[in-house]
Structure prediction request, 160 residues.
Amino acid sequence: MIAVDICNTLANVASELKKLGIEQDTYPSPLPESFFSSPKGLRVFRNAKPFEGAKYMIIQLSKIYGGVTYVTTRPKEARPVTRRWLSKNGFPSGKIIFCKWQEKPDIYTKLNPCIIIEDDPRVLDSIKDRKVLVLVPQWSYNNHINGKGIVPCGWKSNWH
Prediction:
């Protein structure tokens, strides 16, 4: 099984925030946590475009490794929006775990996935030396993370 983050990993949330005048050069976003539970924040999740090639890669990896589990720090209020977004954009069905970022390393440990796809530098720093392949979509806020399992990637590469 593979474990995959959603925001700025599959969904270009940064682009939607930029439309609101919010740059995501630092992580986490400078917005209060309550923003993403608000109607405006939920629209950001709904309107985010998937990264080119992400759907194809997740479909292929989930076939090879026996499915996908999505692990997200989106608030629980975003559950319906998130399910619809994944389905509408053709991502394979799978369990969705909503959690705090501090919980992600332990969740990844319990899931014991073959591959993790994650962009949050705080989480990456906690899992960078584990014996699991971690694909990291490159952003200015996470390109300094190195470790034995870390593999920088970009969805627009020749993956399809």
Observations:
- The radius of gyration is 15 Å.
- Residues 61 and 134 are 13 Å apart (CA to CA).
- The longest strand covers residues 68-72.
- The helical segments are 13-19, 39-47, 54-65, 79-88, 104-111, 121-127.
